[in-house]
Amino acid sequence: MSQILEIIGCKYPIIQGPIGALNNPKMVAAVSEAGAFGMLALGYATDLEAVKTSVAQIKDLTDKPFGANLMIAMNPNNEALLEILAEAGVKAVTTSAGSPKRIYPKIKELGMKGLQVALAAAHAVKAADVGVDAVVVSGTESGGLRTNGPECTNMILIPTVCDMVDVPVVAAGGISERRGYRAALALGAQGVQIGTAFLASEESPASQAWKEAILGCGDAGTIRLPVGGMGMRTIINPKLSELLAAGADLNQEYNLMYAPQAWTDGDFDLFPAGAGQVSALIKEIKPIKDIIAEMVA
Ligand SMILES: Cc1cc2nc3c(=O)[nH]c(=O)nc-3n(C[C@H](O)[C@H](O)[C@H](O)COP(=O)(O)O)c2cc1C
User: Fold this and answer.
1) How far apart are CA 188 and CA 285, in angstroms?
2) pLDDT given at position 1
3) CA 195 to ligand 1 center in whole angstroms
């Protein structure tokens, strides 16, 4: 059994990419029931009772393993969240958006495993030095929060990191089907993390407008939108296209705070739909178990 399967404890080395704006126990359970690692997105979770309820709902729906994502720099509640998760029997979490240095002692103390998300090789090496159990390496094609600066594709980043760290590597970004899954494993990753493809799945609570934006997105259909010193990969819609052509200061035009509302309402003029470049490969809305079955076939 691979080290990653030992850490996440499920049938396939496939992790649900957490999406902060979509926190849905049914979807997490659907991923776990299909043999992958369902993931509760707790990056912005402040209501601890609501988290306990979500965890209990997942456990009512599946007895298979699931995890949770904590965004390190975004949330002062991470230690309390870890205690809730450990109490519920969660064995592994992913951590992102911050240095793993301070949170990993708590993860270890609770007997859990932790996978740190890294957007660049240097960060993966630092995380491995801190003692994380695995790194989730996320190339520039990925959906979600990015940097504003130079970035690398997974085709280069995965083998680079595999050569530099001793811990197992999970590839995040650009994977929605069998070809990408196999490519990631061929590049040296032991597993994959899937964001956009599950976001556009049948069980996803994302708005229909959000899913349709993904289905309609072509290979040059996304950019890293600069937001407050970071980047967020979004789908280019007519308004964003006009702003790009006019050379507008996108940082002034959009505020990341409005993203969850915009994505829920399908109001992409308020904030463009978040998604990865892999949107270009997603042509229909499918059940999660079909996406996973096709991937591992
Ligand atoms: C809209 C959106 C929101 C995301 N939010 C989070 C988050 O809250 N925490 C996190 O660690 N990753 C987040 N991600 C990244 C995903 O978990 C995953 O790593 C990424 O989407 C993988 O790339 P893919 O979209 O090509 O599959 C987000 C991704 C998207 C598309």
Assistant:
1) 29
2) 84
3) 5
114 lines ligand 1 (CB under 6 A): no
Please tell me the distance from the alpha carbon of residue 218 to that of residue 270, in angstroms, as a whole number.
Answer: 21
Q: Tell me if 204 CB under 6 Å of ligand 1.
A: no
The verdict on pTM exceeding 0.85 is yes
| The CATH number, out of the four listed (3.60.15.10, 3.20.20.70, 3.40.50.1820, 3.40.50.2000), of the domain defined by the range 3-205+282-296 | 3.20.20.70
Two tokens at 153? 């594709």
Summarised one tens digit per residue, pLDDT across range 161-199 is 999 999 999 999 999 999 999 999 999 999 999 999 999
Question: What's the 199 CA to ligand 1 centre distance in angstroms?
Answer: 9
Do residues 266 and 207 make contact, with C-beta atoms less than 8 angstroms apart?
yes
- Check if the beta carbon of residue 92 is closer than 8 Å to that of residue 112: yes
Query: Domain residue spans in the chain?
Result: 3-205+282-296, 208-279
Asked if 184 and 206 count as a contact pair (C-beta separation under 8 A), the reply is no
> What is the DSSP secondary structure assignment for residue 258, as one 8-state letter?
G
- Which of 28, 196, 204, when mutated, tests ligand 1's pocket best, judged by the most ligand atoms within 8 Å of its CB? 196
Q: 221: Cβ below 6 Å to ligand 1? A: no
C-beta 275 within 6 A of ligand 1? yes
| Phi-psi domain of 82 (left: phi exceeds 0; alpha: psi -120 through 50; beta: other) | alpha
